[in-house]
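Study the following:
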Amino acid sequence: MDQVSPPAPPTRFGPEIDDQGVLFRLWAPSQNQVTVVLEGGSALAMNKTDLGWHSLLVQEAGPGTRYRFRLADGLEVPDPASRYQPEDVHGPSEVVDAMAFAWSDHGWRGRPWEEAVVYELHVGAFTEPGTFAAAIDRLDYLAELGVTAIELMPVAEFPGARNWGYDGVLLFAPDASYGRPDDMKALVNAAHAKGIMVFLDVVYNHFGPDGNYLAAYAPIFNDQHQTPWGAAVNYDAAGSETVREFVIQNAIYWIDEFHLDGLRFDAVHAIKDDSDPHLLAEIPSRLRASGINRPIHLMLENEENEVARLARDVDGEPQQYTAQWNDDLHHVLHTAASGERSGYYAEYAGDTEKLGRALAEGFAFQGDHMRYRDRSRGAPSRHLPPTAFVGFIQNHDQIGNRAFGERLTAFAPAVAVQAVAAVYLLLPQIPMLFMGEEFGSSRPFPFFCDFSGDLADAVREGRRKEFARFPEFADPQMREAIPDPGAAGTFAAAKLDWNEPPRELHAQWLEFYRALLAIRHREIVPRLQAIGGNAGRFKVLGRLAVQVEWTLADGAHLTLMANLTDQPLPGISRPSGRRLWPTAPVASSTLEPWQVVWSIADAGQA
């Protein structure tokens, strides 16, 4: 095959197609020689630059060409910036034409953040086929429900046929089990046609344990920082400039090439970086500078309850990140509904002050000492607008990290779950549903993966050992009953049953959610644009009973009165204003067990 050296050292990751062929490139500073091996073709020596890049323009290659890189010791590896892995993480990479997909969303300009009603879903478990294409068939259902954004759990190529997605190793390649890259683009394109935004969960705090070859040829890890997964990704030591660029380009790639509306950054507290600027500051800065002319919403998961990256400018616009998942809100509502108090739940159970604070101010822990961690946690958050927080009562972690992956409706009284749902769905915070929650899905969502050999054994035994410290799993037989993450049946059990929504009990749940979301879109959303900080305040009415009031952007006063216990609370004065929920009459001076009442008063009427 003819080969031509590139005119300059490459600065982008992944193959690039032009009218002369395909430019292959790999950053492998620890390798003196790298060969590109074309499947069914030649093995061609690449040219190395002083910066550690190896590159070669191959004129006879094109879309569909499959290739690997051969290192000096003979090890053949996939492209770390592969766009498609048809034979999984250890197989060849495939050249993909980024311009081949025929987009029809040219008029799409995104949606403002305050309109977001987020629906978190796992592509593989959302439908029986478990593909991007199959998910398209459910978009009408989601639009009718009141969903305005879907958030895909991570899709980056992972080992095997099933995985939560947090073990991804090839960050630019949508997993082949879900379809080709153009199938993912088709899902985004179809969602935009329905007025639905699409967000993607991305993982930059670690790589999965199977299929990551980066350490064989590049300084991808930094032993000076440790994370729950081992040495941290190298964002601040020698060679980190290129590692950082790899991740930054990945974030831009998903937004630009796949027309996504935003990203959710997994466990950013585990991103270790002593640089200035921090990687988490550089990513939004580069995205803003990339020329993408539509709203881009960036969300954080951060166990530390930090607020600096949620800061707003003088116009109320996010300076870096749009919002953060509010675990504190989940915990106060979960413990109220379920009565659970093991582990960190003990910090929230029965604590009405934390309940009111999470509802009115965002975080429950705002620098307070947390006994479970034996240190302080969080920072004051009241100055942030309520829309800086994403609220939920279920998500993949809070369900799947339980031993059996039970949903809240499986162990909490229905009346209690309805109460906490009626609270979070109308909050000025941004609501997020977990797939199937809206119809009371009976399917669990246990942790699942598809590792093999010793790694599969280690994951299975590690999960059972993790739960051994809980009293209910002291019996070895109980631990043995925990689903094997690697079993195909564990994944099959997690798939939604779409025969359930029409059935009576599930239909009632679905109508309940639709009614609340209709009220949200009609009454709450129009009053959230440019809502400021210090908007919420609360008072304690009794144990797990609060009154919370927010001043909305148009000056209206939104009031929540909630009794999250099984005991009536008499002697309660009702606030003035028009009642939003419930639609049926309520007693004037008693908050009944599990009663939630929402009302609104226009500016000047409160």
